[in-house]
Amino acid sequence: MKLTKILALLSLFFPVFAFASGTEERLDLTSHWVGYTALALFVIAYILVIMEEFTGFNKSKPVILVAGLIWAMVAWVYVSQGLPHTAETVLRHNLLEFSELFLFLLVAMTYIETMKERNVFEALKVWLTSKGLSFRQLFWLTGFLAFFISPVADNLTTALIMGAVVLSVGGNNVRFISIAFVNIVVAANAGGAFSPFGDITTLMVWQKGVIEFYHFFDLFIPSLINFVVPATIMHFAIKNESPEISGSSTIKVKEGGIMVVILFVLTIVTAVSFHSFLHLPPAMGMMMGLSYLMIASFLIAKFRNIECDIFKKLAKAEWDTLLFFFGVILSVGGLGFMGYLALTSELMYTSLGATNANILVGVLSSVVDNIPVMFAVLTMNPEMSSGQWLLVTLTAGVGGSLLSVGSAAGVALMGQSNGLYTFVSHLKWTPVIALGYGASIYAHILINGV
């Protein structure tokens, strides 16, 4: 430990020291000016990401720029030290990790966009708003639907659908809309934590092979507790009144919509089978699943004379989000290659212990997006039991609910609500959400501790 600190101090004044890591000779840049510059650039980029809602500056732009600068600086140092191909090899590995995530998400987003175009989600919204339920009943129904839809669809799409329902029936009841939106964010994030498909972080953990597919469902009860505990308390803040429904409308699922849902389920089964039984990347199974949709779209267009161009759906995928993942993964990968993630791992997991460190990861994910946080943990790859890997999967997934800016679901609903759901209105319920956060961790330790 002391020797490491001495070497780090000396590297401020002398050329960086090389050390072996596996078969790759790497340089410790954690105390080099290149390392400090890279850290500063990443922090600036992430501040711009957080400010996206106010500046309109897409989150992908700063992180992609910084990713390029970080790797350019890394490569320059390695070339100057006579190691011209080391950085290239590691960067290619990072690109491979991103490509698997990219292809997986691209297929999932294409299916979601196709279901939107076929009115699957719109029909669900109209059906819910026509049931004449009370505000309390709607509060629980939208919460449970968010909890059980987000494991299949992503938490962002789920939150937007349920948010549209709340806005449709909430009318001028600002208090109901605000509390219901908080509940949806918590429920969507909690539901996504016990499924490999429910959140980007769980997907990353599954694709990394750290946790097997079926083990994610060990988090079901802790995730449910994370949602139910704050929801039960918020329930009493809503008056037991019924909304006024003006008029009624009927929206039917377009032809082929149900088939798209079935194909999406089949695609998920294919991806799981590829990973579990054939030991192939899940992205390969998802790409095969995309062919199901492409063939079905062709047949619908040819024999039913209905326009169903799959490439238009591909074009509507969240490209800013996909490119944001590219920038984050490459930036964090570069910082990890410099040695910062190993240093962080030592500070967190060695000094604090796995349990405390994993709880801290969840708290961090409420301020910083959980994607770079989880990618950093996966890159550090601390030696932990499967129970601890499940714990960090849980905390990274549900920790974002502590603040409205801690998850994509919260940020999206702030934009959708037109000022009815804000950072401050969510912050009022943070102590209650934190109670659910602590209860879910306690439940996990009791149930999955062994």
TrEMBL record:
<dbReference type="GO" id="GO:0016020">
    <property type="term" value="C:membrane"/>
</dbReference>
<feature type="transmembrane region" description="Helical">
    <location>
        <begin position="283"/>
        <end position="301"/>
    </location>
</feature>
<feature type="transmembrane region" description="Helical">
    <location>
        <begin position="156"/>
        <end position="174"/>
    </location>
</feature>
<dbReference type="GO" id="GO:0006814">
    <property type="term" value="P:sodium ion transport"/>
</dbReference>
<feature type="transmembrane region" description="Helical">
    <location>
        <begin position="389"/>
        <end position="409"/>
    </location>
</feature>
<dbReference type="InterPro" id="IPR045016">
    <property type="entry name" value="NhaD-like"/>
</dbReference>
<keyword id="KW-1133">Transmembrane helix</keyword>
<dbReference type="Pfam" id="PF03600">
    <property type="entry name" value="CitMHS"/>
</dbReference>
<feature type="signal peptide">
    <location>
        <begin position="1"/>
        <end position="20"/>
    </location>
</feature>
<feature type="transmembrane region" description="Helical">
    <location>
        <begin position="322"/>
        <end position="343"/>
    </location>
</feature>
<feature type="domain" description="Citrate transporter-like">
    <location>
        <begin position="46"/>
        <end position="397"/>
    </location>
</feature>
<feature type="transmembrane region" description="Helical">
    <location>
        <begin position="181"/>
        <end position="207"/>
    </location>
</feature>
<comment type="similarity">
    <text>Belongs to the NhaD Na(+)/H(+) (TC 2.A.62) antiporter family.</text>
</comment>
<feature type="transmembrane region" description="Helical">
    <location>
        <begin position="355"/>
        <end position="377"/>
    </location>
</feature>
<keyword id="KW-0406">Ion transport</keyword>
<feature type="transmembrane region" description="Helical">
    <location>
        <begin position="429"/>
        <end position="447"/>
    </location>
</feature>
<keyword id="KW-0813">Transport</keyword>
<dbReference type="InterPro" id="IPR004680">
    <property type="entry name" value="Cit_transptr-like_dom"/>
</dbReference>
<keyword id="KW-0472">Membrane</keyword>
<keyword id="KW-0050">Antiport</keyword>
<keyword id="KW-0915">Sodium</keyword>
<keyword id="KW-0732">Signal</keyword>
<feature type="transmembrane region" description="Helical">
    <location>
        <begin position="63"/>
        <end position="83"/>
    </location>
</feature>
<feature type="transmembrane region" description="Helical">
    <location>
        <begin position="32"/>
        <end position="51"/>
    </location>
</feature>
<keyword id="KW-0812">Transmembrane</keyword>
<dbReference type="GO" id="GO:0015297">
    <property type="term" value="F:antiporter activity"/>
</dbReference>
<feature type="transmembrane region" description="Helical">
    <location>
        <begin position="258"/>
        <end position="277"/>
    </location>
</feature>
<keyword id="KW-0739">Sodium transport</keyword>
<feature type="transmembrane region" description="Helical">
    <location>
        <begin position="219"/>
        <end position="238"/>
    </location>
</feature>
<protein>
    <submittedName>
        <fullName>Sodium:proton antiporter</fullName>
    </submittedName>
</protein>
